[in-house]
Amino acid sequence: MLEENVKVLTIAELIHGARPLSGTSFLHPYLDRPISRTSSSNHRTPLGPADSISDSTNHKILTPLNHPVVLIGTLTLHSSHDDCLEFTDSSSEICCDILDFNVCAIGKRIHVTAWNFIPLKGTNGFLEIIKWNFPESTSVLHGCSSTDSFDSFPLFQSSVAASEIDHSKSRYRFHGAIESVSPVSIVPCSRPCSSNDSANIRGFLMGVLACDCKFCTAKECEITQECHSFTKPKFVYFSGAASCWHPVATKLVGKVITILGLKKKLVFIGKEESQLMFVTTENSVLHVPRLLKKWSPPSKTVIKGKGESGVYTGVVKGVYMQGLLVELDNEVWLLLTDKLRTVPHSLRLGAVISVRNVHFVNPRFSWTKTLILGACCKTSIIVESFSPLESGCYMNAGAQNLLGKFIESLSFSARLWALLVVTCFQKKFSGILLDKEILGSKHKKGLAQMYCSSHLPSSVIRARHGMFTELCKHESCGCGSEPYCGNLRLVAPISSFIYHCEATGIKMLLEFDNECHLSFKNNRYILLSSEGESYGRSKRQIVPGEDIGIVLLGSLKISPSSGRLQLVDMTGTIDVIIPDLSLTWENGSIFEIIDYTLMMEGLPEVADRLWLPKNVSFSCKAIFNCAPLSRKRNLSTFVYFHMCNSPNNYLPFYPCAGWTNDFKELESGMFHLIQVTHKFPLLQKFEGDPLVLNRSSMFVEAIVLPCNLVLYGKNGTEHPTKVLGDLPNELVKHCTGENYRGYVPEKRCKSNYQSGRALSSGLMDDLGFVECELSTCFQWESSKEWKHTHFEMSHEIPCKAAVRSANNQSLVLPAILCQIKANLNSNVTFQCLTAEKILLEFNSESFLKYQLLQIGGYYIFKHQIENCFCTTKDSENVGNAKIPAKIPVSSKTQMWSLTFSTDEVVTYNRSPSNGDSSFSSHEALAVDQVELLLHGLSDSYLGKSSDVHLFLSANAKDILKVKLKDLEEDFIKPSVGPDQTSNISSCTRTTLNVPGLSYGPLDSSFLVPEGNLISLHGDVVAVHGFDDSSVSEHLSGESLSDVLQFGFFQELGKTFCIHVLVDHKPVRIFGSLSEHVYLIGFGPGVNATFHRILPARVPDSFTLLSISFIVVNSIRVVNNPFIDKISNLWSNSDMCNKASPDTVSSGLISELVQCSDCKPMRLYCRVVSVHVLILEQKNRKCDSLRSKPHSGAHLVDIPLACFVLDDGSSSCYCWANAEQAAIFLRLHNELPQSALENSGLKLKWIGIDNNGWTTTMYHLERIVKKHDRITVKNYGSVADSCYQDLTVSVSSENVLTSSDENLLKFIIYNACFGSLWTVVASVMDLSAVRWLEKEHLMNMEMTMNSMQNICATEVYHTNPITEARNVIQELQDR
Amino acid sequence: MDHTLQNTHVKLLAFDLLSLTPTPDPATFSRSGKLLSRAEIVGTITSRDHKPSKFIKFTVDDGTGCVPCVLWLNHLTSLYLPRRDPSTVRLIAGVATDFAAKIKIGLVARVRGRIASYRGDVQIMASDVVIERDPNMEVLHWLDCLRLARKRYDVVVNKS
Known about the structure:
- Chain A: It comes from Citrus sinensis.
- The structure holds 2 protein chains of 2 kinds.
- Chain A has 34 helices and 58 strands.
- In chain A, strands 22, 24, 25, 26, 27, 28, 29 and 30 form an 8-stranded mixed sheet that branches. In chain A, strands 31-32-35-34-44-42-37 form a 7-stranded mixed beta barrel.
- About 25% of the residues of chain A have low confidence.
- Chain B is α+β, with helices and mostly antiparallel strands.
- In chain B, 25% of the residues lie in helices and 39% in strands.
- Chain B has helices at residues 14-18, 86-102, 136-153, and strands at residues 9-11, 21-22, 29-31, 34-36, 38-51, 55-61, 66-72, 108-118, 121-132.
- Chains A and B meet through strand 52, helix 30, helix 32 and helix 34 of A and strand 1, helix 2, strand 8, strand 9 and helix 3 of B.
């Protein structure tokens, strides 16, 4: 009976309340009310800490009622789509799920003492019955007409009692274990009673295993509970009204049942196959043993993740995509993508579920480690424990669209990938595209589906069949065999990508940091000589996109804040560098970037370490929970790629505007040719400075070449021959010289410079405010009427122009390069005519164009009447200096980059020549470095990267080259004043005067540094920031004044000293590096050109001016610090310690202990024991990056090796690189024959013709090849070779055979039983030791004794005579 | 007493080694206030007594004296050896057998091992024996012994 204080709640009341509730007071009768949060949990398995993101997103625990409440009602079956049981009382009914299910409860009145209520939209809600019982007054067996040990339930509610079964048709009986239950499906069927009337029959299949024994096969026999062996697979089809038993059947999976009153039917599956199965009839009765007998399927083999089926129980950590994707535990993904599959309402966040007959798939994706549980038609989900959280139920989705069908047809790995792609697309383009465009509809494919199908191999697509086929012919349907999908690359939202990269990057850089710390100590550049605070400690990491396994998708835009080019989607932005980005690039196109390089640099701090997730592998959860980055890390991340590397950069199905139009523009017409001579940097605004307030123009200085390019359309009306004959002349006719005047009256002299500030902003402002009123030679008066003929054509060079198109195909057009020469009758000097200097003014809209222009590069402008380029005003003379004409470049101005090459050879691999600015040379790249070349002009993409590529005959090109060279010389000829030209720097580099910086009007007594601006090209070695105090230490008074004079630069940012190696000669450049200067990746390791810097008075010192422009040509980084760690440590100490053995003084280990300086010492010692040793298979990729072949051409790498050496005076730990470790281990020596005998190794000796097999290395290679990475640790004695306790562990799954293990041990013992070594070594820095210990030994749970640590630089066999002489000498000296 | 050399294989000439003072600990000897337990000697093998699977006794003459050495070969049967992984024991036993095979009268050997005392005399319980092919190695060893004695073993560390 119910207790007195227990309240009875009706369902109607519950529904009316419409709020999530938990009535679990009965579970905790002894707890004081109100129930605490934790006590409301009904979990048998307590939830772990809220470590998943979805857990932590404010899911409250269900509100518990603070008094015991009982629901009284009846548990019934109902044939709803939701596949639930129903709980009804007199007031209402509600869907429910029940724990501790007993079939007897069906149709009975029960008391529900502990429950959760979850309101559901559109329905009454959902009841989770946690604890229930039969009312004491009710007999448990009431209504069950059965023998003692069975409960019987007619499958049809109205059916007759079991005893009255009509045996004529439905006389079959089945006794067995339920193996699987299919989802309820609808079969179009014609009813036997009315053959014309066809109807759909609901039903489900039950896969059962029957027993073959005589009791079971007998048609009519008493059901006994004898021991049976359930091995014979059979099927029972629950049709029609019996299908309402589906929720019960699901709960009975794995149990032994009996069904009476079945009929047998031959069911045709497809056209050829048929299957005899039991079908329920109106007379069918389900017998369930009162004591449910559990049956467990025969144990399966080891789950390898290749599609084997089994049972998985876990906690729901997240339900995504309308229940298609359920995350269990941690990154175990349950795929519920089958169309018939219904997600139980009780599968809520926090619930513990058990999934049976699910396929285990390890997708082997490169970007994440995860386990997929693929649900098929056999899979059943049972909720083992309801969620105590207030998480919502998932309503089953209605009709399936094309995308759903598509996803259903994929293999499990591909399915997860496709689902992630769909989610990513939704996240990335949610605001840009409609949901319908992304997901598609019933009849139209969406963007996501198109993307997926274009990337998936056909092998992952499975033919789907009906439920009957899939269940009956399950094995042949492909669920159990998973095709390899590891090469599928994820399209991640940019925010997730950045998050992942930062995590990886910080981890790598922190490790790199430790290493750098070491190398910095050992590697003392004389150049750096501890000048102030080092800015150059910023670490850099380059990771190929291939290793990340993520594809980037987004559109390009210019960041309004930093001015950098960025790849953008709705979730975030990432800086990009595209050396070959076309000037004709348009906003709005979506790019797919597959082949890219990720570069990260920065100064990770301790705080970042704290933030660092434990596992840095990409988590799929991150995609679902992708949120904007919360805080700025001390890490800048950018992506580098070439447009030409991926032929399908543009999404093929996404319309991209711009390209087609561009072609039309380029197809025919006349183009002006310019060469960029300088770019003025973007200046940071001075706060409150009216001169620069609201000004955001950027300026580029260029010369207009006296050449015009005439292009002819492919299908143009004018024939090329006609062009040669007529057009240039016509063109010449129209080039008016009348308006062109070389001598220009002085309109305004703007020389009111007040202070040194003019240096910083004078040029820009002055130019900005000059009102140019003079006309230029490029002024065209009216549309087709060109007036004057003061020019004459000197040369017409016919050529071909290859125009780059969207998909990097070249369109070759006939063209003419016509050179224009001034009429000497004109009162214009030759120089002025040939090299007309202009200033291109870029506004913020056209900022990208500004960025893409390269100093020294050639560009063409289309000649248009309305084009401001052609109608701009002439230059103006200010004082003696001539101010160039200012030409605004808007975002609509069409510009194309241009390169020249000869007809014969396309200049893709042109050998660099120093003289030609467009073919700048590059030093050979060291093998251990990865270099990013940032400029198309200087790399192998030359030609490919330019928009227009002109093919000239070799002869014509030479002429042109000479002309251009002349022009350049003319151009750089001083035009300021003869007194200033005399003071040309002795520097051999190109000198340029300061055309915009008018020194003339300035008071010469004013402390402004004078000189000619020069350009320097070199490798940045270090960048140091320094404050005033440190300045004085390093600069003489004179040059200090230089720097202090430029104190105003410090307003812009900190002043830096940049150390640059120019032709192996160190120089210093002082100045400020404003953050707003477009300088991605600038820092040590870059190759940069410093344009227009001013020589300081100290030799080899220069000053960076506000007009100076830094071009980062390439970025280098030593790749893969993980591998190179020890070898780096090595090479660095090599660098400073490399000395011939003779010059290194000999010593004793005991002396090393006292010696504090890092001088190398020569020791005669023996290996006593090995402390730790890591043997690895050499990574081919890394190998090619390595500068040193460490162990010869062998495949064994020894990234970590520590030996214990003893020379009779003391012992020490000696760390060795791969090369020396191989010597210590005597790997190149012959392996004693006894080794093989001792280790029990049998080899086939015949047929090996060279002596390679006799070396130890040969055998080691063989072992390492099998196991990838082998770690040998000595937990035993370090002083007795024989008492080493060696533990060998391998990284591979292959078992290390005892013979191999013995051989490895033998190699180590053999190393310890050798003669003397001469070792040149130096004491290791404490921090280095600590790092090694922390990095390697702590993970291995190894400790180190208090012995000294040394670093071996050289190891060789002791030459007794030489060494004896040395010792005699030493003994005599003392 | 100075323990700093206890885990080091001291290089001593025979006369020096044979005159070490025993300490109460049978595994430790003392020389000029320094405790020693391991040594390395180089010299010509002058006698050899091989008992297969039991031991090999041999003497090493470095010109200043003859050091008796013993190399145990009973790893597989001895009850006194510390309990170890059987495969390692087999390996060590095999290696020791190889050493034994190499020990031949007249060859110059480098012997390392623990210093022990047998019937009141100092001997070396060899852990490994390396045959030196270059006779100059012996000379270098003499010089090395002198150098070590001068720079290390004879140096009295004043702890104050």
